[in-house]
Amino acid sequence: MKRTKTLNRARLLISCSDQPGIVASVSAFLHEKGANIVQSDQYSTDPEGGMFFMRVEFDLPAFTERFHEVEEEFSAIAAQFAMTWRLESERKTKRMAIFVSKEDHCLLELLWRWRSGELDVDIPLVISNHEDLRDIVESYGISFHYIPVTKETKQEAESDAKTLLYDYHIDFIVLARYMQILSPAFVQDFEHRIINIHHSFLPAFIGANPYKKAFERGVKLIGATAHYVTNDLDEGPIIEQEVLRVNHRYDTADLKIAGRNVEKIALARAVDWHINDKVLVHENKTIIFN
Amino acid sequence: MKRTKTLNRARLLISCSDQPGIVASVSAFLHEKGANIVQSDQYSTDPEGGMFFMRVEFDLPAFTERFHEVEEEFSAIAAQFAMTWRLESERKTKRMAIFVSKEDHCLLELLWRWRSGELDVDIPLVISNHEDLRDIVESYGISFHYIPVTKETKQEAESDAKTLLYDYHIDFIVLARYMQILSPAFVQDFEHRIINIHHSFLPAFIGANPYKKAFERGVKLIGATAHYVTNDLDEGPIIEQEVLRVNHRYDTADLKIAGRNVEKIALARAVDWHINDKVLVHENKTIIFN
Amino acid sequence: MKRTKTLNRARLLISCSDQPGIVASVSAFLHEKGANIVQSDQYSTDPEGGMFFMRVEFDLPAFTERFHEVEEEFSAIAAQFAMTWRLESERKTKRMAIFVSKEDHCLLELLWRWRSGELDVDIPLVISNHEDLRDIVESYGISFHYIPVTKETKQEAESDAKTLLYDYHIDFIVLARYMQILSPAFVQDFEHRIINIHHSFLPAFIGANPYKKAFERGVKLIGATAHYVTNDLDEGPIIEQEVLRVNHRYDTADLKIAGRNVEKIALARAVDWHINDKVLVHENKTIIFN
Amino acid sequence: MKRTKTLNRARLLISCSDQPGIVASVSAFLHEKGANIVQSDQYSTDPEGGMFFMRVEFDLPAFTERFHEVEEEFSAIAAQFAMTWRLESERKTKRMAIFVSKEDHCLLELLWRWRSGELDVDIPLVISNHEDLRDIVESYGISFHYIPVTKETKQEAESDAKTLLYDYHIDFIVLARYMQILSPAFVQDFEHRIINIHHSFLPAFIGANPYKKAFERGVKLIGATAHYVTNDLDEGPIIEQEVLRVNHRYDTADLKIAGRNVEKIALARAVDWHINDKVLVHENKTIIFN
């Protein structure tokens, strides 16, 4: 089942300092352009000195043809309020690259939801530091590029990856259990456009073998956190979190299986929201209009 | 812990046929009045011929004094778009009556959340068709009125209840396990202002003794649904639903206890959202901006 | 990640009228045989005149070779207590057939969990009344058999299916969105060995188009129920249930997607428990030792 | 609604090194005594060199009168297998002391569930280092003792508390948001008999103001962990965990309210299981037969 796409549907995303008149100006602009607002969400953090966030979904006759015109004209309003903003066309499908290592559960969940039409995205490219998942990826008709990474070749490997990302016109990256830390320079180039998934526990178990530690303390919930990658390792803005219930009968292997299943669920939701421009980032947190 | 109330904070709730210019007009109006929009949510069902829903929370200097002025001036815009609408002041605490029979779990949950400051509401009045809960209600300093109901006295009982509701200036009613069916005339008088809670199962178990039937089929989830009362019994617009996990070790009594606990949680959330004007009703469904 | 199988591990499942001495007899028998009990669960419904259920997992030296000896010797104890019982070897992987129509989400979830090693089962056979899913099934190296069903050919179709099920030595069947009702005779042949999945709502929406009805009433939870098939349509013993949270922004198509996702999760858990002999059935309910 | 207590119902809890013959010996003993096993759960961690855990619930004619006889006779079997064990009578209601500071949400949840009959426990005593909650506690007919704690008086305060605990024949203690760290000596005296509740996040936010940090990172789930107190602060065996979903609209105060609500739920379940002897502790984890 595919979600039907609407012709001429646009999404406008705005972040700026809160100040009187923003909504009125945006609405007046859209009204004047002949737009029909389908869905609009706003959120502001604090009436005094706070931040303002807005997501408007609207239909505009001949939007595809008029995209640049609308974008250009809106930039005047944006400048007036010192907005961080972007205009997106629902028709333009985003292009996603997936980075993997050897574990396939997150990769396969994304591929399945993509093929079933649940994730409205193009996946032209998978990059891996191992050859293990080549066959499965290629069976979906997706290019698989093997880029090994060692301490010595890391810079070169990232450079190769970047070339591929640009060649394939990639909009954003999903680290689907990619067991390498990206360099600050790489992260910077794709700010708020790299989604990572990692296991999460209540409370956290620091250091190696977290599942073993979780087992030893008899945790009752196993969780996962999907977040944007920043240079503060695993500390970027959270997009989605989920938990699964476990019990003392789960051994370390069972806990890992539960971990895989909860990672799949949290990551797939985060990717879906990113694709549909439902996520705004401010400082280290997300505003999600879903 | 009390949530802090903001002086001069207003909420405007709007439903109407979707049409161009609504948001622009509302925004321009609020901008002109000097309002600072704190939070705004919109939702429209369908770009062509659909419905439009909006909730705007804003701060307006001297709003309390200017309430009627704002209300009157906005009515011109409302008329233009044939809106169903209302303006609310956060400062004006809603007045809630609770109807109970003999079971106390929902009543006590509401009383506790009220006294703890979690529910920002006044509770001047509890009405019951039994005397059982008088002491506990009065210990909270709340008036308890015993109105017995029989088939013969039902009309008179409802008439007595209405008198009390008007005398106490009640804004809305919560049926906290009130085991009487209200007459269509009574329901009509408090349209979308009576909240009910009842158990819910997946799938439903029709008829008497649902917990026994649920036990006999070994259900794994016990649920509850909070909804506005309409004259279609237990079929009114859903506000909130919740489930709790159970297993084969739960006997019928245990399932009932689980049912009580999930009813408390779902009802308390529904009441909180109603109090904060986060619920809009259209036909038989709710739009909840939370 | 595969769960490691233990050599010589056995599972004994017992249901009978509750009576003194059952556990003592079973334990003494296993002790005498040299078994090491790994996990044992018992449950009895009611001390007076109730039912007793037991699942024992144990290791026994050379169990594979001694399976029939153990089975035969235990049958004397079983007779003494009029037990319904079975002995299973963990080493003997169960053989599962999947019945599908056109929808692939449940099928693919099972195939993925099977290939990833999460589901310890063999899947030699998929039967469908449509050709649509042939390619995907065959790409997993699984036989796909197309058996069309019409009112006239239903009996013949079931007969053909049975032949295949016997030829392939199938232990149990999963109806992964198979949109045909099986005949009482067929169901009887596979009593408590056919697992079905269907959507579930709180409360239930009877009749056609349940998602449309759920949308119209603004449900907040979408659920699914996995159960054994009996001749009382969709009313058999519940194995697992799950829900996902939705909101007013979900249109009917979105609710269906949520429904698919929750069906996958509930079905996969039910199949896992069935495979591992964790489910006992008594009358119309399950006892699940998980 | 009270859960009905059964006359002559006993619970036997056993932990020991796994070895052949344990279950057979226990079963034979109970059979010989004329016991009727109502529910029995066993769990063993590892067939080779692992631990064995068992909880048996059984009815025994005239158990109350024969308690010491049964206990004494069983001690021979216990010695044979070097068991850690205890025998409990359902009829003997446990006596719980609650320690609080100023926050009342956990206290009130326990009091409500106690008065409603959900928690089958006696609560003769509340101890607090503040006077704030005296009135509410005394309104339930429960003794309230104010024991202030400073760095200088800590030892004396604990000594006073212990005297009260012994005078009131307290079986176990619940720290219902008691903001003091107990001394190792005190904890030792009540090993596995002190239950604490604290907030938990995914991932953890270390240090002061965790809710502020959770807000700043935009967490989507707020959790709580109920655990037995050990001298490794907040690192004792986990009994229960729960989470509630939140979103970016929750400010720090809203997150704290969510935290309170999830703490109430997790703590009440943990206390219920402790009361019903459903929790066994081994090293730093719990085995929960529920």
From TrEMBL, chains A, B, C, D:
Catalysed reaction equations from the record: (6R)-10-formyltetrahydrofolate + H2O = (6S)-5,6,7,8-tetrahydrofolate + formate + H(+)
Keywords: Hydrolase, One-carbon metabolism, Purine biosynthesis
Segments passing through the bilayer: none
Pathway stated in the Swiss-Prot or TrEMBL entry: Purine metabolism; IMP biosynthesis via de novo pathway; formate from 10-formyl-5,6,7,8-tetrahydrofolate: step 1/1
GO biological process: 'de novo' IMP biosynthetic process; one-carbon metabolic process
GO MF: formyltetrahydrofolate deformylase activity
Domain ACT: 11-92
Active site residues according to the UniProt entry: D234
UniProt similarity note: Belongs to the PurU family.
Name under which the protein is recorded: Formyltetrahydrofolate deformylase
